Amino acid sequence: MVGAVAAFSAGIAERTAYAVRSGGPDVVADSRQLEIGGAQITVNLAAGHMDLPAGRIFAWVTRAASAVSMYYGGFPVTRAEVDIRPGEGRDGVFHGYTFLPDSGIVTTHIGVGEHTTEAELENDWMMTHELVHMSFPGMEREHHWIEEGIATYVEPIARVQDGQLPVTSVWQQLVDGLPKGEPAPGDEGLDHTHTWGRTYWGGAMFCLLADVGIRKATKNRLGLEDALRGIVAARGSMEKDWTIEHALETGDRATGTNVLMNLYEKMKAAPAPVDLDQLWKELGVVPAGDTVTFRDDAPLAAIRKAITETPRAKLAPVKP
Ligand SMILES: [Zn+2]
């Protein structure tokens, strides 16, 4: 999730709670400064019981920040904060929310159940999703789909690029998820229909089509990650509110194409359904039960491979 206003009062209340550094041997309340991808990230763990040691929680944030830094060639903002609230009586990661508070430091609030296991942190996607949100400027409400679309699309790719996930899981998730982003009867374009499916998976569909489109237009030299890095390099991040046109034009300038703006013109007001079966065929993605296999003789197989390839400029610092 992402937002700028709604979590305000909750944020202030939670920060006050971090001043409490008390409790018995089972109660953790801890804070750590992480230096990752050129950024300083303050991680605050609120008081409460956790089965896992605090160090394991900090390592989970580190891993997510490392994936995001890999995709963007550096962490997209120089200062960030992650506030973690232990969830009494539950397990797993929940209620991720990223926003810009009065402090001017982009902040993620996220819950971790007290009985969360090592495996649950290992498999978690939400922390990475939230940190991806920090990379893109704040949008008007009607363009929320682009914020969630980028976070949904980039998260597994960043984790694959950082060696945290197998390549198959990116495509398996897209095969599974993208049909939920197709327009339902009566749906309009992405700027006008704000259902969950159109927001998260319709937005992710936009990103996949953009990635393939940029790679087709540049002989597979550049992709969506270069457009998104270009937006960060132009100081576009959650620290700023931009218009969607400014963001997409900035991304297009970084790749020397008009792919983002053309796609936006096509998808913003009209339903624009996508023939996904045809797209999987072209990319050489073959759904196979709960996984996928690949065909390297497919016409766009090279593009499919490039999408999850580890970027050339590994961890190069983001230009100020
Ligand atoms: Zn989100």
3D architecture notes:
This protein has 320 residues and is α/β, with parallel strands linked by helices. The chain contains 12 helices and 7 strands. The protein has helices at residues 8-17, 54-72, 118-122, 126-133, 144-161, 167-177, 196-217, 224-233, 244-255, 259-267, 276-283, 301-308; strands at 27-36, 39-49, 79-87, 93-99, 106-113, 285-288, 291-294. It has a 5-stranded mixed β-sheet with strand order 1-2-3-5-4, sandwiched between helices. Strands 6-7 form a two-stranded antiparallel sheet. Helix 2 (54-72) crosses helix 4 (126-133), helix 4 packs across helix 5 (144-161) and helix 9 (244-255) runs antiparallel to helix 10 (259-267). The longest helix has 22 residues, at 196-217. It starts with 7 loop residues before the first helix and ends in a 12-residue tail after the last helix. The protein binds zinc ion. Zinc ion is lined by residues 1-2, 129, 133, 148, 151.
